[in-house]
Amino acid sequence: MRPRRRLRGVLAVALAFVVTVVLAEAGARLVALRLGESSDWNDPGLATQVRNMRRVGRGEGGADVVLLGSSAVGEGIDPERLAQSSQAAESAYNAWHAGAPASALDLMTRALVLPILRPRLVVIGLTSEQLNDNGTGDDSYEALRSSSGRPRVPGDETITQRLERRIVSWSYLVRLRSTLRRPNELVKGLRAGPDTNPYNINTRGMSFETLDKELQLTARHLEQNRQALADYHVGSQELPALGRLVHRLRGNGVAVLIVNMPVLQDAYVPLHPRGSADHERYQSALESFTRTEAVPYLNANQEPWGPEWFADENHVNGRGSARLTKLVSTEVDRVLNSGE
Fold first, then answer.
1. How far apart are CA 283 and CA 243, in angstroms?
2. DSSP annotation of 115
3. How many of the other CB atoms lie within 10 Å of CB of 304?
C-alpha cells in the first residue's frame, strides 16, 4: 500500500503543479489582452516609443537628432523646442527608456534607433545611475532584451536566448515575466488599457509628466534612486557598453554628443553609498572617457541648478527643461556645424 500512497502523493503534487501553471498562464494571457501591443514590449513606455518612432520613420524618413537616455532625458530635453531653436537640425526625437543603463541604450540603438530613425547626431544624456555596474539597470536591459516585439539584431542572441524566444512565442507567462517583475509599470499599463500611453509621452517621445511640477522629494522616489545607486561602481560593465555604443554610432556615420545631466546635488549625491566620492568618481570617469574617445561633451552640472529648476532630485521641471534644452541645442549646432 505504501508505494501506491507514495505514487498518489507524487501524482497529486504533479497535478497541483500543472494546475498552477495553467492558471498562471491563463492569468498572463488576460494581462496581455489588457495591455494589447504593449505586452510585446515588457514595458508600456517602450511600446509607445516604438509606435512613435515607426510613425516618424515612415512619415518623415527619421530624425536629424535623437536624444538617448533614461527618464531624466525623457522628461528633460524637449525635442520640439530643440528643433525649433537649432540652426543645424530640422527634427529631433526623444528615444528614452526608463532606468536604462548604457548597455540598454546600446541595445535600443542597435535594434530601434539606427534602423528606424537614421539620425545624423545622437545626444546621450547620462546621470551616475546609467554607469553603475551594480544598480537596478539590469531590469531595464532585460525588459528590452526579452521583449518579444524587439527586432532581431545579427549576433545578438546566444543559443539559450534563441530557445527562450521560441518559448516566448507560445507562453505569455514567460513573455511577460519582466513586466510582472515591474509592478508599478504593470499597474499603470493595466489601468490605462490596451495600447494607450500611461507615461504621458508625446509624439516626439518626450514625457510631460514633470513639466508643470514644483520640487517634491518623496521617500519612495528617493529610495528608488538609492537602489539604482547601490554598491556603486563604475568602469567594468556600463562604461565599456558606452564605448561600444559610441563606436557603433560613429561606425554608422552618426555624430555623438554626451551630456552629463543636471541633478539636484544636495538631494541626489547623498543617495550614493559613499556620497560625493562616488559621484565624483562617476564624473571623473565620464570626463576621462570623453577625452580619450574625443567625444564632444557638455557637463550641464557645471551650471548652477537650484531647487527651482527641478521636479524631484534627478528630473527637471518645465523651467529646467527649457533651460537644459537651450544648452543642448547650442552644443548640437556646434557639433553638426563642426563635423565632429
1. 16
2. I
3. 8
- Reference 129, options 288, 242, 48; nearest CA is 242
C-beta of residue 25 within 8 angstroms of C-beta of residue 171: yes
CB-CB contact of 282 with 314 (8 Å) = no
Q: Which domain holds residue 35?
A: 2-338
- Half-sphere exposure (Cβ direction) of 178: Cα atoms closer than 13 Å: 23
**Could you tell me which residues come within 8 angstroms of residue 11 by beta carbon, excluding any fewer than 6 positions away?**
none
Q: Do the beta carbons of residue 94 and residue 73 sit within 8 Å?
A: yes
* CA nearest to 63, candidates 35, 26, 95, 23: 95
**74, 158, 339 from 100: Cα distances, Å:** 11, 22, 28
**Max Cα-Cα span within the chain:** 87
Residue 249 confidence (pLDDT): 98
Identify the residue whose cell numbers are 510631460. 208
Residue 294 buriedness (CB in 10 A; 0-12 / 13-18 / 19+)? exposed
Q: Which band of pLDDT confidence, cut at 50, 70 and 90, is reported for residue 158? A: low
Could you tell me which of 130, 129, 131, 162 has the C-alpha nearest to residue 146?
A: 162
Nine cell digits for residue 1: 500500500
Number of domains in the chain: 1
CA dihedral 76, 235, 330, 53 (to 10 degrees): -50
Q: Which CATH number goes with the domain that contains 51?
A: 3.40.50.1110
- The model's pLDDT over 98-154, given as tens digits with 9 standing for 90+, comes to 999 999 999 999 999 999 999 999 999 999 999 999 988 788 888 888 887 787 665
pTM, to two decimals: 0.83
